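Complex record, two chains
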Amino acid sequence: MSCIYQISHNIVSSLGFNSKENYNAVVNNISGLKMYPENSMNIPEAFCASVIDNTRFEDISKQVSNLSDYNFFDKLCIYSAYEALQKTDIDPADPSCLFILSTTKGNIDLLENHSLEQNIDNSLFLWHSANIIGKYFNNPNKPIVVSNACISGVSAQIVAKRLLNFKKYNYVVVIGADLVSRFVVSGFQSFKALSPELCLPFDAQRKGLNIGEAAATIIYGIDETCENLENDTIILDAGTITNDANHISGPSRTAEGLTLAINKCLENSGNIKPDFISAHGTATPYNDDMEALAFTRCKLENTPAFSLKGYFGHTLGAAGLLETIISSMALKNNMVIKSAGYSRCGVDNPVNIISKNQSLKAYSFIKTISGFGGCNAAILIKKLVK
Amino acid sequence: MIKIIKHSVISDFKAFTDNKLIYTHTDNDRFSEFLSSLYRFLVISYPKFFKMDMLSKLGFLATELCVAQTEFSKTENKINTAIYLLSNASSLDTDINYQKTLNPEAYFPSPKVFVYTLPNIVIGEIAIKHKIFGENTCFICQEFPDKTVFDYIYQSFLETDIKNAIVLWADYINGNGKAYAFLIERETSSNIDKDDFNEKTINFLIFNK
């Protein structure tokens, strides 16, 4: 059985411009979430979000050549992939390298100043962004765009894994990104899904989610036997996607879809018992209850679990990648991360949410995620132990 | 390894299944009215249809055409059925409609519109109607068929316990839409006379090339 393994990664968020900066902020319990009072970004209601420091990003992205003319979203994606690639000897212009973009809304911020009656600018098409990114790296392949609501970042990793197993590519660069825009913030507000304060995943006082802005990249490779890989290499072992077939915007009351995704994923990885759960934990009342029920139904109620939303907010198309990266780094360092914003259990099915960083000899974790359209996904990430 | 059980096309105010014209509507040049009249023609009783945006209506109807009178539609809970959606414009038509509700002079963002600003809601609507619990992924590509997405679908059948799938191209923008739906199945001895699911067959079936 061949191994699909992580070669390199990057995170650009309010907490830093590479994975290490982001990870260090998280383990030091620093959150990138900030309060935005009424009328910020021309949005009447107050909200709380994690936004990339534009001035610092412009400054730091200067070290990457010819980036100045790109739209902000495309620039973020290119920078993130560039930084991840820089640490490898992969030639992105080689046909054995494929790019995958995971996003829900791409350059949606451009719609603000766009005529709503005339022809639509190409920049708003998601495939166009992917083409621009691929072209920047002189990649000869047509890139893939996965737009599967909030599970996009995990879906895209599953796509990467299968396409590597298809044996046409040696490397897949998976980039996930979404912006904090007036479009998205107002939309989630209209759903009453946003908390005006810091989000509190799984907590009794939780009121809703916070939106976050980020780009995150994971480069996956394939090794036929795993024997050439170093000890502690991070492996994407299994992945499953399901649908609730129940409601387009509300989580399932029975947690059927997520339960099925987790059970199948664990079964496909040889019934491994994960050492921790990197949960979706959006901090909306319904999502967290549904997730806790799924963990309980999968007999994972005692497995240490955390949500990273208290550090980054919900980063939409980037979330699945960003959270996989931070959790993989924690796995490597044998630790479980404190679930920021958690003090008192507020879900119907008590689960083991971690309220303090802990060291733990860990070999694997499961990343879960759910989204609008009734979709759920789970991936099992493990550490190669020889 | 994968066979096409049935396929449907909605294009230029016409609806086909297996290349047979099922319905055409010439009285009106509005695509939205064409879809509503196609819905009535198919005698589907599903009030949720009227809440959907254009992209969902289009994908929903193409799927209805494609699974009508098949063994597939008689199965209760479809755990090993996948849905793969491909689209060029994604939800951009609804994105623009939603953006219109954000005008500072008449600010009234609607959750009913916002929910459709995700293309995979089409998948959700189909999954609910047909009780499909299996894997589902939405790809945004310039054209159909997309070679890499087809490689992915092939590999998914190879690696997982998927029994059958709906592969749907649905695209709606500037008041016009197109959809192609395919019901595909893992090859069994009983469907040996069916076409293989690959780009070549699809190009022939749909575009006659």
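Note: Chain A is about 30% helix and 20% strand.
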